[in-house]
Design a protein that fits this description.
The chain is an all-alpha fold and about 80 residues long. The longest helix has 28 residues. It contains four helices and no strands. It is extended.
C-alpha cells in the first residue's frame, strides 16, 4: 500500500506544474452528470470486487498476464481500421 500510495502521490506532484500551464475547462455539474456518477459507482465497485477475488484466487502474477494481451489487440484493431 505504501508503494502504491507513494507512486500516486509522486505522479500527482509531477503533473502539478502542468495544471497551471493548461488548466482543465470549467465543467457544469448538472443533474445528468450527478445521475451518471451515481449509477456508475456500483458498477465500478462490483468490477473491483471481482478483480480482487480473481487476484486472491489465482494470484497476482497470473492475473497480471492479461495486460500482455492489450498491445496485441491494439495492434490488431489499429491495422483493421
Amino acid at each position: 500500500m505504501a508503494i502504491a500510495g507513494g507512486s500516486q502521490l509522486l505522479g500527482g506532484l509531477a503533473l502539478l506544474p502542468f495544471l497551471f500551464i493548461a488548466p482543465p475547462p470549467p465543467a457544469a455539474f448538472t443533474p445528468s452528470v450527478a445521475c451518471c456518477c451515481r449509477l456508475r459507482a456500483p458498477v465500478q465497485r462490483d468490477c473491483l470486487y471481482h478483480l480482487l477475488r480473481l487476484i486472491a484466487d489465482i494470484g497476482p502474477t497470473r492475473a497480471l498476464t492479461v495486460t500482455f494481451l492489450i498491445p496485441v489487440f491494439a495492434m490488431g484493431w489499429a491495422s483493421s481500421s
